[in-house]
């Protein structure tokens, strides 16, 4: 799904305020603290609360493996002024027989700053411009209007509602479904700055 350009851990996307870079083992403590926050974890399908360290270790290894294989792209969000300091995650994951799906989370202290919109927009631009993507899907818990606003601000179109499994919550929960296709993306703006060297 993703080209050679993204398959090396020196790959990054730079935005006005962020570096989007590969997650590393050094991000473990930040992920434990930020994704393990009950308010963040409650909106995520696969993040248990409490969040065990071994789950984070497995996540980082899987993300790096998928990035290397080009089957997905998971990037850590870090402020440009502190590129080693993870504040969230944004990803595009593929699965057999399904359109690639966007996912993301941001540490609670950064909510309401527009950083997630900036990160999602940059990753979508990279997906369509450099990976040749045709369509992206996304979903947001119906109880999470801020996540829906991020998707709408990045050009995603609401396509309906449904129920999705949230294994870490132990149940299926209602979600709003979204879609962004190449044609719509082409009307949205410019490409991000991509950097291949650290």
State the CATH superfamily name.
Answer: Gcn5-related N-acetyltransferase (GNAT)
Shape: globular
CATH architecture type:
3-Layer(aba) Sandwich
Strand order of the largest sheet: 5-4-3-2-1-9
Indicate the structural class: alpha+beta
Major beta-sheet overview: 6 strands, antiparallel
Number of helical elements? 6
Determine the mean pLDDT: 94
Helical fraction equals: 25-40%
**First CA to last CA: what distance?**
23 Å
Explain the overall architecture.
This is GNAT family N-acetyltransferase. Pfam families: Acetyltransf_3. It comes from Methylobacterium longum. The protein has 198 residues and is an alpha+beta fold. It has a single domain, classed as 3-Layer(aba) Sandwich (Aminopeptidase), CATH 3.40.630. 29% of the residues lie in helices and 32% in strands. The strands form two sheets. It has a six-stranded antiparallel β-sheet with strand order 5-4-3-2-1-9, sandwiched between helices. Strands 6-8-7 form a three-stranded antiparallel β-sheet. Helix 1 packs across helix 3. The longest helix has 17 residues.
């Amino acid at each position: 799904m993703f080209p050679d350009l993204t398959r090396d851990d020196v790959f990054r996307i730079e935005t006005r305020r962020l570096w989007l870079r590969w997650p590393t083992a050094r991000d473990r403590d930040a992920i434990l603290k930020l994704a393990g926050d009950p308010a963040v974890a409650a909106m995520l399908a696969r993040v248990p609360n409490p969040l065990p360290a071994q789950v984070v270790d497995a996540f980082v290894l899987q993300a790096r493996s998928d990035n290397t294989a080009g089957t997905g792209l998971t990037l850590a969000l870090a402020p440009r002024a502190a590129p080693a300091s993870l504040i969230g995650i944004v990803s595009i994951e593929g699965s057999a027989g399904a359109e690639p799906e966007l996912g993301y989370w941001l540490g609670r202290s950064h909510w309401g700053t527009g950083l997630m919109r900036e990160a999602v927009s940059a990753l979508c631009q990279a997906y369509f411009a450099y990976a040749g993507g045709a369509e992206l899907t996304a979903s947001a818990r119906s109880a999470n209007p801020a996540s829906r606003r991020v998707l709408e601000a990045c050009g995603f179109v609401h396509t309906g509602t449904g129920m999705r499994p949230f294994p870490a919550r132990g149940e299926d929960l209602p979600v709003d479904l979204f879609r962004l296709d190449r044609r719509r993306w082409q009307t949205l703006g410019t490409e991000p700055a991509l950097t291949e060297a650290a």
